[in-house]
## 1
Amino acid sequence: APVIIAHGPGVDTRPPSGLPAPVAKVAVTGDFRLGRRELRPQGTVVRIGETSVGDGSLSVFAGPCAVENEQQLLACADVAAHYGSVGLRGGAFKPRTSPYSFQGLKWAGLELLAEARRHTGLPILTEVLDPRHVERVAATADGLQIGARNMQNFELLTEVGKSGLPVVLKRGFGCTVDETLAAAEYVLAQGNDQVILCERGIRTFEHATRFTLDISAVALMKQRSHLPVMVDPSHSVGIPALVEPVSMAAAAAGADALLIDVHVAPEQALCDGKQALLPDDFGSLMGKLELLAMGLGRKMAGVVRPALADAER
Amino acid sequence: APVIIAHGPGVDTRPPSGLPAPVAKVAVTGDFRLGRRELRPQGTVVRIGETSVGDGSLSVFAGPCAVENEQQLLACADVAAHYGSVGLRGGAFKPRTSPYSFQGLKWAGLELLAEARRHTGLPILTEVLDPRHVERVAATADGLQIGARNMQNFELLTEVGKSGLPVVLKRGFGCTVDETLAAAEYVLAQGNDQVILCERGIRTFEHATRFTLDISAVALMKQRSHLPVMVDPSHSVGIPALVEPVSMAAAAAGADALLIDVHVAPEQALCDGKQALLPDDFGSLMGKLELLAMGLGRKMAGVVRPALADAER
Amino acid sequence: APVIIAHGPGVDTRPPSGLPAPVAKVAVTGDFRLGRRELRPQGTVVRIGETSVGDGSLSVFAGPCAVENEQQLLACADVAAHYGSVGLRGGAFKPRTSPYSFQGLKWAGLELLAEARRHTGLPILTEVLDPRHVERVAATADGLQIGARNMQNFELLTEVGKSGLPVVLKRGFGCTVDETLAAAEYVLAQGNDQVILCERGIRTFEHATRFTLDISAVALMKQRSHLPVMVDPSHSVGIPALVEPVSMAAAAAGADALLIDVHVAPEQALCDGKQALLPDDFGSLMGKLELLAMGLGRKMAGVVRPALADAER
Amino acid sequence: APVIIAHGPGVDTRPPSGLPAPVAKVAVTGDFRLGRRELRPQGTVVRIGETSVGDGSLSVFAGPCAVENEQQLLACADVAAHYGSVGLRGGAFKPRTSPYSFQGLKWAGLELLAEARRHTGLPILTEVLDPRHVERVAATADGLQIGARNMQNFELLTEVGKSGLPVVLKRGFGCTVDETLAAAEYVLAQGNDQVILCERGIRTFEHATRFTLDISAVALMKQRSHLPVMVDPSHSVGIPALVEPVSMAAAAAGADALLIDVHVAPEQALCDGKQALLPDDFGSLMGKLELLAMGLGRKMAGVVRPALADAER
């Protein structure tokens, strides 16, 4: 992927070794330098495995909130792949409000994700919590996720920036759009432009939903930044019945990608199960998104869907 | 329109004189009784002039935030009609944060709205602020709007309920979805079921936009209530460049109607001009909404659009 | 009370008939004109009955959230008077989220308040909801309260302004400090400077308390405006165990007055009973406030407390 | 300090080696186990250097937001000591929204803090950002601060828990009281009970102040938890003129300690200078706090104040 190098106070103008030469060199100031839309009006394309995010298509990443065991993960991964996901999400390291909650399978979970990738061919996207883990997680994962609680964990942002891997940067639920763009700068400043901004809801007085998805922020981030924007409807709303309408809204507002919790047995999930879609509901959503994408003059990203492939034979 | 009568503590079971007999009589309790989706699973259709809101179509009401003078209003009304609005919005009485701001043309503004209706054929939707004004405003307007600042002005809600006219009830920017549904009960309890709930953004810490549009609330209100749901993107975001993506999102989330500020000279507007769309941008949005509606399996409400009628000749 | 008259766009420079001549005439602009601290650096004193609010003392107004019946009201009024309240609060007209909740005893409640005043000598402070009621309520009450839900009911503000009675203006729970100051201008612009600003909590994501008391706003309103500031800890927190510490904090931050829910049988209250203090707890709070006031170099306002008067004999 | 050991799912019942035997063993469940008030009704006393926080006294920690250079730090430390601070605050590692802002002097800043300690005798409290730094920072500092942005950086919480040093845990500005208590469990679960909870304002729609200090949370945390509570007025309000009233309010609400930004030349500060108190204003505040403490029946913690010692000679 092309590298932008801006020069100005505090910005290192040398591309990190191993990365291609910069395509542009622009003088910038202020807190928001490298991510500005004007620097790359055509937008940045982020590659996760075989998938391109930010090329105008609509990509869906799906999977369970947490990796729980081999059977659960492979079953969820099959569902994701079957209905046209372009990537598999799944948490091996889980940041939990309480130390007494399930903290994820950790390294064993990462191994299971690698197995699910071999099984389905889908690239894997997983969260990293600790700067000391970045190198080892990056050796396996196709994309690194920074969770909302770590959006301003600047040491961690710097480490994932150095990894060179694609990064999904979730907006902190107490953070503004401008702070999200500034957090992305920590990754970009390491010479890594493979950043996807992810809106996942903010804290407001309205508790009918778990968080309040800031739909305007999706459009705002697209207009201000050249980075692709993802939306996580599942964690925003926390209610399966709202995942579909909110996913549709996100796509219509211009989101490049969606991140959707899918689980084969949500009632048994060890983490955030109650917000996950059942396989059939996920399939139904994918069908509606495909029609919606047509109405928007866009296409769904991803491999030919098995059902369609069958029908074509 | 059919009348639902629920019986239970505090609910008068007799339909107001002049209204048709109830079609249902259901025992209900709690704060949310008459608006519940289960009472009318097919949803309520609200008729404003010739327009039906809530029948599955997507309706757009457009016009200036405030009525300023004859020339301005007629020009804006022409734009609204030309691009396919089904109704004209315009404030004659303006609730302003400061007593030193323009407070609207008041009764003279209402006369101008009536003139604009004669000129374009569009039904007029206008705000009422004072219980003492309801009868006189209702004699002219086709639909009454309750502004966000008055959502819990219960005396006013009762009066507009008695008027029998369609009511657009804007969600208070500090109020929850449940409080909005409870406020609608004040109107419904008067035997007036012609209520449209309107999401127009809530107050949050994010000030990049004027308010934060709660897109999940659109779906939630549709699921919980049988009343149609409108979205006001203009007042939510306060930035013209965000009106289009947010309007698209609202439609995709299931909104029945949109309320859009359009102005022929926003820079000269006496109230909230900076958020209004220019005529061309409004036309462009209407075109995109039409394609989006197709992707959603819905149609745009309204009269045949002039441009299309010309082309068909 | 002295009248400030400012001149400038939109400000009528003539004092309303029956009010004294202005003591100052100042050119002002912007949304915040008549309430600005600079206009009256020494601060405004508001007189409710025999009580002065804003003279440096700390005043407590107490009583039940709603007037329920004669026995309840008189018992609560006795408690308020016994422990040194300088005024009695009690709602005759109650703005309720739901039309199915108790709406107050209305005019009969107002009569009971007048009886409680005769019984205890305390001036009465009560809420008015409807511009059509202002004249009649003002004929009985010593002070009018504008509830949080009506802070931007500008027709009502104008009417209470015209009444000339002292007005307690509660901050809307979704409104900013600046909007509160602008709302006060609607009353001031009628030539009525007897306005007390009341902080009663705002809506935030934190739901451990009913609202979030904005303690900084107390100091900010004192600094920006010459009007006295009251705090309503009871409605802010909604939890009796927090009323004492929050009352202490409000006094320490500079509040001129407190508004406290007291009930002789909170578990039977028809409205917001669960936040009311029991008589003993109210007495304990009053004792602590008296010591706190000494630490602040202030004194508690009000008549000699019965217990002290007994002791002095 | 005594160690509480709770037993239950996920709780290790063995005290970490080197710590004293537990004084209590209680079966607990839920997210909030070790910090519950019932486990230690008398409250926990946290020792930072010679200072006890949580023993009923009111402690003030003061100093510059960031360590900038030797001269600035020593001058600020002198002011803090002179007026009766019991500890020196100062950031060597600064978490900044933007990578282009001053990030602190880092290890050199820590050395300067140690020098300021030698100079004034005050224990030093400083922020740690990275789990990899904890051991080295802990070797110098007397207390570790976890900033609001890292309140849910659970890897970091675990490391500071292991360090055994006193920890000031700042509430995340988007986090609830319950989440703050749950975050403290991460530290407590390592056998380290030396935790001070710090309220420093939350994000709300009100932007007249930088954050909204949640004064009720101070009382709520004291009631729910046995841990001492600190308040940081400076970062909450971001306006020097509000630091005094808000500090007074915090003390009156029951805070055990205050954390106050003081700077000898705020206009030259490299970080958050505009909210720092000038030396004279800090001295004035300390005098008022002393009188307030008397009104509250409490005393100010700390060494004999030089001015007083002089006078006593």
Note: Chain B has one domain: 44-303.
## 2
Amino acid sequence: MANITKKVSWSSRGDDSGLTGEGTPLLNGSEIPKPSRQVSMVSLDYDNIENQLFLEEERRMSPMGFRCLEISRWVICGLIGILTGLIACFIDIMVEKLAGYKYQVIKENIEKFTEVGGLSISLILWAVLNCAFVLVGGIMVAFFEPIAAGSGIPQIKCYLNGVKIPRVVRLKTLVVKVIGVICSVAGGLAVGKEGPMIHSGGVVAAGVSQGRSTSLKRDFKMFEYFRRDTEKRDFVSAGAAAGVSAAFGAPVGGVLFSLEEGASFWNQMLTWRIFFASMISTFTLNFFLSIYHGKPGDLSNPGLINFGRFESDSVAYYYYEIPLFMCMGALGGLLGALFNSLNYWLTIFRIRYVHRPCLQVMEALLVAAVTAAVSFTMIYFSNDCQPLGPERNEEYSLQLFCADGEYNSMATAFFNTPERSVRSLFHYQPGSYNPMTLGLFTLTYFFLACWTYGLAVSAGVFIPSLLIGAAWGRLCGILLASFTPTSPIWADPGKYALIGAAAQLGGIVRMTLSLTVIMVEATGNVTYGLPIMLVLMIAKIVGDYFQEGLYDIHIKLQSVPFLHWEAPATSHWLTAREVMSSPVTCFNRIEKVGTIVDVLSNTSTNHNGFPVVSRLELTQEKNPAKLCGLILRSQLIVLLKHKVFVELARSRLSQRKLQLKDFRDAYPRFPPIQSIHVSQDERECMMDLTEFMNPTPYTVPQDTSLPRVFKLFRALGLRHLVVADDVNRVIGLVTRKDLARYHLGKHGLEELQLAQT
Amino acid sequence: MANITKKVSWSSRGDDSGLTGEGTPLLNGSEIPKPSRQVSMVSLDYDNIENQLFLEEERRMSPMGFRCLEISRWVICGLIGILTGLIACFIDIMVEKLAGYKYQVIKENIEKFTEVGGLSISLILWAVLNCAFVLVGGIMVAFFEPIAAGSGIPQIKCYLNGVKIPRVVRLKTLVVKVIGVICSVAGGLAVGKEGPMIHSGGVVAAGVSQGRSTSLKRDFKMFEYFRRDTEKRDFVSAGAAAGVSAAFGAPVGGVLFSLEEGASFWNQMLTWRIFFASMISTFTLNFFLSIYHGKPGDLSNPGLINFGRFESDSVAYYYYEIPLFMCMGALGGLLGALFNSLNYWLTIFRIRYVHRPCLQVMEALLVAAVTAAVSFTMIYFSNDCQPLGPERNEEYSLQLFCADGEYNSMATAFFNTPERSVRSLFHYQPGSYNPMTLGLFTLTYFFLACWTYGLAVSAGVFIPSLLIGAAWGRLCGILLASFTPTSPIWADPGKYALIGAAAQLGGIVRMTLSLTVIMVEATGNVTYGLPIMLVLMIAKIVGDYFQEGLYDIHIKLQSVPFLHWEAPATSHWLTAREVMSSPVTCFNRIEKVGTIVDVLSNTSTNHNGFPVVSRLELTQEKNPAKLCGLILRSQLIVLLKHKVFVELARSRLSQRKLQLKDFRDAYPRFPPIQSIHVSQDERECMMDLTEFMNPTPYTVPQDTSLPRVFKLFRALGLRHLVVADDVNRVIGLVTRKDLARYHLGKHGLEELQLAQT
């Protein structure tokens, strides 16, 4: 029988407004410390708040007007694609330049000191250079914009899901993110530059689609129609897709990523626009990189990471290899769960002890120095020398103690940007690495990557995961080949590297459909679709048994009321009556200004949406009364700011009629109630909410089961759902947080505590 | 200003039940004749009808039970994939065998008579062989299962959209479809075998997921939980995806096809399962074909159509070619619109005059004979001789009047299965065709294909479209090359053939996202993504200006209440009050059996869903009363059949309590009311609907705008939506048909007449 195993009651019960991220979710049964910085999240409303003003505007608009809007949407998506592609291009070139310069300097230094002795000086040089880059990136992130830390994928996932973490789509965040990611990759950390592209794409989209920048205080008076949550969300999902597309050269993968993470309601035209943005983004990147590389017209660099081409003929797989691949998938799931668990405990530790910005920067510096030291030691003690082939010319190959015409094989893995290391693991000839090198590399890089994720630097986890997986995958391939030395089919360890990379990445991030398509597009080979899919599936199943995905862990640690795809399977016996908040603060259709100001100023409740009721004067009972609309805090604030008051004598005080434009201008940074001054006289005035409220909010009866309420929320993107009794009186209000509390644990339905403390 | 330009009032206003396909939509302003066969459509309910029985079952189920259900879903998807792959394999092998035999016989005959004279005998032989095949296929379709005609894609689109055309997912339909498509392809018609695979996949899914076959009267007592519309729809979308996947070797394309056409509510796990079915399907096909071709383990036949591999190096495109591609897209749109218009008029003609089965078979025979005659004539008068190269060995090359060591180039296009013709247009060396040959071929094949689509044979339009496009695309390539003889980049007309094929197909079917991905996967080359996308986009925009897509035309001609993605843009001023049906037939919570039987038997209204109301005995007013539930005709029929009556004395007559199983056993072929005998005594009994009705139907206030109602329908898959007033009394009911009536025409909002006459 389903039952709630952990029920935590709470004292103060708020609405979804100002969801503070300082909750204490019960994850694995242990109390989690509060994050040091309070992150106050905002629920987004993707249901169209249609009020009379909006309907009037729509009615005035001609079919031609709608067509123009549609064209603007396409133009915006094109712009998003171009800008995202340009940002990716900028990051790529800067990283190449800086890393190339760094490796060149260190290489010359090492070569000099290999002969004369005293390689410890090279080590110090390497560590200092790394630390210098990481210092810049760390300071930017820790002091200027902490939200730019990490890959930004959890934040974008939350945004598309309907929870906005403040400052996540601001211009400043974008600038810090871009500089930060350049610094951390050039600084030699075990990070990738791909994840942050998704965040960058989202910020670009949020900026372009609004036709203004609040940070730069410029309003281009364009695209004003799109200044609301629904439209902005659609563009942000296009931006995220464009980011994926530029990062991996995977436009279809980008579209699927956006859909998998965000779009609850699939719309053909929207998807098509998202695809357009993705295509433009990868094309722009390709175009400019081809010019930069001096080969204009050669469209062979569709993404930041280029896995190189897997030709079907040389690396075909056979169906009897599929069980082997599946075992690798299981291994990937196990290693992924280990990675996530370690990172989870590390994050708890960081929340508890490493919360001051200067401490965070110091930790980042420590990691940078340790990374350099470990890499150097591994290379120094490695005696895996390989002959220099023609394919090595573009790499930074180190000779070190090897004979002339040979290079140190460990150095191709460590002394390189991670993207290039992945590519060499995929494509180098059999025999380019010896098993010992790969084993040691996997081990050290695993712990380095795990330590690095969550530092106060902008960095992605995709490439390190791929690199770890490619290393142990190639190792598997070599071992298999050594068991069956006569059979030619095991000849190519590159394909095992690919499968290993997929397994490890799948085990860590637990993405499925989109990741399959991304991998297929990045390898440029459709025939690997089936094994990659199976591997990702197995990795997810095995991994989920032990631990959640990395992004989900970080989302949960922030106490975000994240709504999954469906209500927990065993929740049919819960009804709206049990999940709703009650009693609800309602307003009258014509309400006293003083009452409104008082309710909005009440910080203990901090409600965000208010049912509007019409109370018959005759009835003596105070509450409840008949529902006739729903109004948001943000709308009330705009009304108060513009003083749309009615004197008791019913003549309008306000000079001009409030228009939709006034709401759009204030979007999305509505001022707090404290900044609005209302005089004592004005408090006695009345406000007529009729024109501004949504006159037809969705309601459900109180016996509606949780799955039905959930579906309504998820499919329509609701923020508030009114629960009404059989004569349409308000008896409760369901918000996102009320639904996000329930989840299916190992022992049945569990209830998380997501409320403020 | 938005306004309804064409408003047609109707006399009898029914519910969505028994939607007869004999409406007279006003398409292009002309009255359309009724189709001869009445097709009575059924709306599907994708909103979970949760009643007390269902909730009790869910409550009894343990978390482990839900896990088992989830595993069964995966198993079913695997089975769907395997079976669909096997069917594709069977079709492929049969077509190859039969067509190979046919072409061999004719070739020998032609060779014989080329020397001795009297080729007219060969022509007659060709025509007779074609007619023989088409006769078998035509009789099967016209006499046994008319629903198996055509590609079945419009029918599957309707099913996924929520309208079931009867017999569309039956086993008999599948058998007729498979045999029919083998006959029509082997019979040399201008058709493909790919479209029908989508329908076949859907039927397989509908059968497997229900764990029984009503046609074979076998119930395996499995998967009983899935016997309802929502679950079945999910599996059918997986089946359709598996069909696409097997047809084109495009698993991702299959998933996107299903989503584009069907899934209004995107669910991660569902999508993942659909992807699984697609992957298994293409793998199964690949596996068995590789064994059949004697090369086990060689996984290079992922689909029925194999476009051959476009290697990036040899056929790279340059960005300055993109405008040229876009012009070809516009041409494709124009030609597509022309094709659709011709086919539209032809279909009208057929509905009017060719409605008897024997006439339909005769038309099919005529087309088969004409196709043979035209092909023969074209080959006979062609003097385009080309030298035999090594790549020709697998084709049926005709020497005819060419010199020894040469073959007739026109014959590679006509004397071949269409799939092989497409492949040769894509990949043969420059110079393999002369422009005259291609021009004539395009022209004749265009009209043949247009005439063929809509015949009473199972046949797809994908391959003929691709073939027409590839022919004129290659022609464009050759012409361009002749303008710039010195430049090497125009050297390969194959890539222009590919772009032309995409443009023509896009112009005819107007699919966008999924078609791009299908084309990319079928060519095995990701770099062509951008040009193919742009071409499809332009083709759609240009085509839509003149005429709708082919499938949409055929859906409209059947008066299906098809819901598009969004409500028309200019419909914000319409409210639920204006679109709803009113007054509504309601039942009391405890209702007299006689009343129920009378209402259900009333053929003039033919309602399908009934609000259940609780009427206070005190109130004298008859109607309306408070809403307390919603019950479906099908549920009432099961109740009547099992005689779940309550005597007036309130003791139960029924021996056993009705269980969910009884409803599931009756699904989906609920008996008609006429077949249920209710005695005069029983008519006086009462029925208590409380346990069986959905106690929490979704409701909207009467002022809700059409777009909001529409979104609710589309996102939740509703069939009925109750419109309630401010005290929760029923004042109307919105059904799918009420919403499908409105669409945006050239002059603003138009209202179609979809009602029965």
Note: DSSP finds 26 helices and 17 strands in chain B.
